[in-house]
Amino acid sequence: MKYLIINGSPRKKNTWKIVKQAQKSIEGDFEEVHLIAQNIPICIGCMNCMMEGEENCPHFSKVNPIIEKIKECDGLIITSPVYAMNVTGLLKNFFDHTAYFYHRPEFFTKKALIVVSTAGAGQKKVANYIDETLRHWGFNKNYKITYACGGKDTLETKGIDKTAKKFSDDVKSRKIHSPKFMDILYFEVWKAMATSSDPIKADKEFWFSSGLVNYDFSPKVKLNPIKKAFSKLMYFIMKRAIK
To answer: 235 and 136 share a domain?
Structure first.
């Protein structure tokens, strides 16, 4: 298995110690991307990625190599300490550059391990934000390690090892999990927008060229009859609302 680690911390301290501990329970090869070393300029909010296509982002040459690594890996490990009750500026800036995935999700078979540490509080909130972002990207299943260090120099490793092993076993199994209802809802929102009478150019091209416009969800992900019916109903409602 091939794993990509995206380190959202500007340093290698508590969060990185947790990652190194988690790696002991994960079988595979690891590649590291440290966002501090990537020198990605601040997102300027030009909306080019959203409206015209991500290749039109003025920082495409900095961001896209990381995206390509995500596409190639079997599992993603993504990290951030809690900074001011949120992710670091490094990780937020990276997420801002990938906002187009909210309209054009791709990673329907990918799984992630989210690692968040804090000196005090906010770790679950921050992990949930990363989880939500990855689910908008299409990620199939995300695992979370949240850890409050509280000034301690040593790690309590039992919970870290347990979650890391679950993540590793799931990646190796290649099992595809059923999506949550909210994930299906957002899928239908973006599909309805792409098939509207006045769609965003890049959205329309993506949904039709990928063939996703013809499905209730990604064809790589199986829906049970209830979720299929929910998907069709949401698309019908969204089409009427957008019209």
So the answer is: no
Mean pLDDT of all residues in 148-153: 80
Residue 100 backbone phi and psi in degrees, to 5 = -65, -25
What tens digit of pLDDT does each residue of 15-53 get? 999 999 999 999 999 999 999 999 999 999 999 999 999
The position carrying tokens 């995300």 is 142
CATH of the domain at 107: 3.40.50.360
Q: What residues does 3 pair with on adjacent strands? A: 30, 75
| Angle, CA of 215, 78 and 10, to the nearest 5° | 140
**How many structural domains is the chain composed of?**
2
Do residues 168 and 219 share a domain? no
**Rounded average pLDDT over 169-178:** 98
Q: Is the pTM of this model over 0.85?
A: yes
At position 195, the amino acid (one-letter code) is T
Q: How far apart are CA 233 and CA 224, in angstroms?
A: 14
List % helix, strand, coil for the chain (3-state, nearest 5): 50, 15, 35
* Residue 158 phi, psi dihedral angles, 5° rounding: -60, -50
